[in-house]
Structure formats: C-alpha cells, structure tokens
Amino acid sequence: MSAPTTDPGPDPAAPPPGPLDLTGALDLTGHRLGTPQQAGALTMVPVTGPARPGVTPPRGGLKLRRVPGYGQVELHNGADTGVAIVPLHLGYIQDAAQNHALCRSAFLAAGQSLLFTDACCVQEGQGGFLAERDQWFFVLPLELRARALELRGVQGYSKLWTDIADLNTRYGLPRRGHLEQILSRKRPVLTQFQSRLELQPGQLGALFFINGHFAGLEIAPDPAYFADVWAALVCFAYGVPAWHHEPGPAGRTAEPLRGDSLEELRAALDADRAHRAAQITSWLTRLPTGPVRLQHEDSYLDLRLSTVTAPHLAGQVVTEHGRTVYASLFSTRTTFDPRTSDPRRT
Questions:
Q1: Which of 15, 115, 141, 269 is most buried, most CB within 10 Å of its CB?
Q2: Reading across the β-sheet that carries 55-56, which strands appear in turn?
Q3: 3-state SS class at 307
C-alpha cells in the first residue's frame, strides 16, 4: 500500500473544497468537505457539520445479543438513554457462531432488543449466545452492498453466498460463499488503511473515492458515532475494493514537495492541497445525474429512515424534520479501474 501523497494533518489555513451537495435530494446544510487524504487507490475527504445529540454510539451501546439461527441476528441497545441507529450493512465476526451481516438499518430505543430475521449469513458456524470478547464488527464490502440492500426484508440465510463467491473469484480466492476469506485473512493488510488515513477532530463523515471514482458518502449523527464506525468503513467497506484496485508499482511513488525553505515548502503544500480540492470537485462533477428516489422504511419519534436509490448510488438515510442525521450512500458500480472514466455501473 502506498503512503499518503498529502500531509493528513489538519490545516486551519487551507479552505475546504466547499459545501457538500451530492444527491440534490438531501438537506446537508452545514456539512462541509475538508482536506483530502490519499492512501493507495483510496481517497478520503473528511466531512464536518452539525451534530445531532442523543444518538447512541454503535460500539458503546449497540450489542450483538445472540444469533439464534441462520439468518437471524438479535441486537440490543444497552444504553440508558438515546436511540441507536444501526449502521447500514453492519456485520459481525465471532467465534463459535455464524458470521452475519444485516441488509438494512433500523432504530432501537434505549433498552430495546430487535431480532433481524432477514440477515445474511456470510460464513457457516454454530449459533448461540456470545461473549463480547469473541466478536468484532465490520461493514459489508462495497461490491456487496447494492445486492444486500436489494435483499432487505427477504428471508434466506444463504441469499448472499453466490455474490460472495463471485467476489472471492474476482479477487483470486477460492470460490466459496465465505466472506471470512477476505475480512479475516486479509485483515492485516486492510487495517493499514486505518493508519494511513487519519480521522480528524470533529469529523462526522467522509467522502470516499477509489481511483478517482465516487465510492461512498458516510455521515454520522456526531463525531463519537463516526469514530465508532470509522475502522469498519475505511478498512472493510471501502478498504476491500481499494486494496483490490491498488495501483501497480509504477503508480506508487509520490512526488516529493520541492522547496529550499520552510516558506517554500508551506507554499508547495498549500498548492498541492488546492490542487486536490479542485480534483475532488472534478470527480464529483463526473457523477451521472438522474432521479433520486426516497422510500420510507421506519420512524422513531421525528426520525425517519429511508432507502435511497438513484442511477449512480444507493443506500439509506435518517432525517429529522428534513435534515440529514445519518447517511450511508454508496456507488452502484462494481469496478474502479483508473482507466475507466464512465462512472456508470459495470
């Protein structure tokens, strides 16, 4: 994996690329883009914005209570107060139980448990009650997310196995419906993205690009929530396709900044950041346009969960009085070849 080509540290003097407007159908007032960071094929643009208090962070309050059978996952909000928003396509790897991923988001009130009967089994195993030390969570790799979203509400524990087997085949791995072949065996490589890309103070979201193509937009209710899902997103949801599309040796060498003094180096760094901000704007303008459809799925007080579909992306969002509180939107393309300029799904 190549090193970042820009300094990932915060720079108060560097202006952000500008306000965020991706779909035209969501109220993202106040959300802004920060300084881009790059690690290999993956570019991450931090998002800051207004926080929505009162949402339980996933790692601290949301627990996997049990897996009573194939395709069944029960989650519990153990917080005393606050609603939990289940991250879209959340999955768990654990010992002595089947590994599962969810096809949809959901609300859980404080103290509430919810049984998902439409979960996807991503590796065979034994069900039962789980100890916290035996589990860690992930978010489904980007290539599987569109299909998983289509399968929400559909019961059948093996419904994603063919897609997982196809993904393993494309990655040169044995053709099996076991996501563990990627997530666990490649984990030491994938976790490098977490160290290469730096979570910024106050960051509550991110734009992800792979080889210049839009990959996803993730927005959390507040920085604490985003910090909880950061590793699952950067290592697994977007790290998996970025690792697969890693540039060859010829494309891994970054040009060093040039300057004979600290002032010249600072000017070169500012120019590099300005160039990358313009590059992000160019990438966003390449997104295809088309109708964005929102389908209401669930409500909790004034919070509304909706599924988003468009020609270029899909996902789910949570809004409150029209304002975006949570969003997990991802590209529906399946390849991120740097030589391919057509951003339509292939």
A1: 141
A2: 55-56, 83-85, 107-108
A3: strand
